[in-house]
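Example (one chain per record):
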Amino acid sequence: MKREEALKILEEKIKNKNLIKHSLAVEICMKKLAEKFGEDENLWALAGLLHDLDYEETKNNFSKHGFITAEYLKGKVPEIVLDAIISHPGHKERKTKMAKALYSVDPLTGLIVACALIKPEKKLSSIDKNFVLKRFGEKRFAAGADRNQIKSCEELGLSLEEFIEICLSAMKEISDQLGL
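Predicted structure:
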């Protein structure tokens, strides 16, 4: 599946503009991580873009989150992408690098957005890795961003600092699309 088709599906299925922005943020982070690991950037980005495709449909029945997307995309994307999408909510063990990356990227993008939004400028350009790290240590700040899930980046051989730097830098590249 090409990105254009995936984006069209995302915009048809997701009505919440912030959820679309979240998907774009996860997409770019996944792409940059794939680049770092020498993996298929397009496949990793596709997993990031489509990971929450069924979120609005499953928000009241989280046990189905990821599974409905996987069923919808079956035969349209490789199994490794489907596996990462099913694994990202924590429904099953993450065995591939892609699945591990998606699991840890998902909440980090929310933490980074929250960091930008507390600055007067409300811009990603106003924050750096150290600012995000400081907020990471504040349990009450962006409490929905699961710190243990973010720290699982270590399963990829990345320090928390390096992981934040990669994702923050990636998100800054598309700050206009994110409205930040």
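Caption: The chain has a mean pLDDT of 96.
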